[in-house]
Amino acid sequence: MKNLFATKKGIVGVGVVIGILASLLQLWGNPANMGICVACFVRDMTGALGLHRAGVVQYLRPEIMGFVLGSFIAAYAFKEFKSRVGSAPLVRFILGFFAMIGALIFLGCPWRAILRLAGGDLNAILGLLGLAVGIWVGTLFLKSGYNLGSSHNTYTSVGWIFPVVMVSFLVLLFFNPMISGQAQSGVLFYSLEGPGSMHAPLLISLGIGLVIGFIAQRSRFCTMGAIRDVILFKQTHLLMGLISMAVAAFIMNLVLSQFKLGFAEQPIAHTMHIWNFAGMVLAGLAFTLAGGCPGRQLFLSGEGDGDAAVFVIGMIVGAGFAHNFGLASSGAGATSAGIIALFIGLVSCLLIGFTMRENF
Amino acid sequence: MNNIIDAKGLSCPQPVILTLNAIKKIKTGELTVLVDTQTSKENVNRAAKSKGWNVEKVESVNDSYKIVLRKGN
Q1: Which residue blocks in A256-335 are alpha helix, DSSP H?
Q2: pLDDT single digits (tens) A75-105
Q3: Is A21:A252 a contact under the CB 8 Å cutoff?
Q4: Which residue among A39, A349, B40, B70 is least enclosed by CB atoms within 10 Å?
Q5: What secondary structure does DSSP assign to B1-68, as a single string?
Q6: Residue whose C-alpha is closest to residue A150's, from A226, A96, A89, A93
Q7: Are B24 and B35 in contact (CB under 8 A)?
Q8: What one-character DSSP code corresponds to residue A180?
Q9: Does B11 sit within 8 Å of A151, measured CB to CB?
Q10: Which residues, listed in sequence order, are joined to residue A333 by a DSSP beta bridge?
Q11: Contact A159, A306 (CB under 8 A)
Q12: What is the pLDDT of residue A355?
């Protein structure tokens, strides 16, 4: 059976749908230029669970659960669900950890970098350049034999673990609902101000998450792969998806008056060019060594890839450290602790790249 | 000559890297690639076609795919 989503028209269509939905999520309540940000939303989720206590970024974002579960449904519907584990999980954990640190220094993953650009935030250009450089370094390792090794097939139940965790988060959300004006409801934390307090209605967020999870699983949409495949194989297939997402979000932002051009006073952004750039070098390198952007890792987790799930857990732990240790940037800029963590992350990723090459 | 690449269990982009390396080495002839996800199958086919190779057949063997690629001869 031919997979229409995997054709050129398919990936372009998926990019357009994601761009439009991301822009609409902003209209319906998500933070500006943050219709979808996988790193930010995983960070908010970490905060909602109380694993960090940064009061402005705590909300159990249903989009994240939707991504995993939408992919899970698509994988089952098209008989692609396959439980597999065992390809260097500890390394993937570390890569997820540092990918999160890098993204929170820039204040966004590649998804948000695109959406920031589509909203007129020129700081995103530095982030995207950093991302491309990080990916380019990663491709040098790939070319010289870097490989995390094979996974092996395992019991179906193992592939269900991460989707079940997502369902249990949804259950938590339904039984500990937001109470207006209160920072805590049962076991969950809710931001009263800042980006964590801005969100679209729960069912809209969940519904859009499910749709994107479904179509992204079918099309293999990946924001890191988009750039990597151009550098590594001169293939523009995934890039078409990324570009169409950017163009669709840009047009929607113009239509909805969500576009504001400039460097200064952009929402949830800072103007320290060098750290915007360097943060995304780290994130781009970590994504490349792990084989997927944070969104792709969620989609893979939904189709049974236990190693991708370990990457996501690494991101959650990274987000906890990022806020507990003051590593994440804010509108005021990067922190000195964050810059130290950035260098530790770069050294760690380079060591992983250098030492995990076959025939060396 | 039998050129077989076993890319089962390898995640993206390894199956494509292995296929393209083999294509570079043998230039023409027949190449068999074993993968175990539909994503890898699509990616290997797309990469091979972009290098002017034909996807001669794709067989589904126990949970994995056997892709036969050919150029020339």
Answers
A1: 273-290, 294-302, 306-324
A2: 999 999 999 999 999 999 999 999 999 999 9
A3: no
A4: B70
A5: ---EEE-TTPPTTHHHHHHHHHHHHH-SEEEEEEESSHHHHHHHHHHHHHTT-EEEEEEEETTEEEEE
A6: A89
A7: no
A8: T
A9: yes
A10: A330
A11: yes
A12: 97
Greatest alpha-carbon pair distance for chain A in Å reads 59
CB contact under 8 A, A291 and B11: yes
Q: Tokens 């979000």 identify what position?
A: A249
Nearest residue of chain B to residue A292 (CA atoms): B12
- Chain A residues whose beta carbon lies within 8 Å of the beta carbon of residue B13: 142, 225, 228-229, 232-233, 291
Residue in the block written with tokens 């189709």: A303
Q: Enter the tokens of residue A247.
A: 């163009």
- Say whether the ipTM exceeds 0.85: yes
Residue ranges of chain A whose CB lies within 8 Å of a chain B CB = 3, 6, 78, 80, 82, 84, 87, 142-143, 147-148, 150-153, 220, 225, 228-229, 232-233, 235, 237, 291-292, 305, 307
Q: Is A121 strand, coil or helix?
A: strand
Residue reference for tokens 């296929």: B19
Residue A318 confidence (pLDDT) above 90 = yes
Please check whether residue B62 touches A, CB under 8 A: no
Instruction: Search chain A and give the residue with CA nearest B38.
Output: A80
Distance from C-alpha of A20 to C-alpha of A252, rounded to nearest angstrom: 6
Q: Which CATH architecture has domain B4-71?
A: 2-Layer Sandwich (3.30)
Question: What pLDDT is stored for residue B2 in this prediction?
Answer: 73
> Is A220 within 8 Å of B8 when comparing Cβ atoms?
no
Encode pLDDT of B9-54 as tens digits.
Answer: 999 899 999 999 999 999 999 999 999 999 999 999 999 999 999 9
Q: Residues A304, A84: contact at Cβ < 8 Å?
A: yes
Instruction: Quote the tokens at residue A94.
Output: 């570390």
Q: Identify the closest residue of chain A to B21 by CA–CA distance.
A: A143
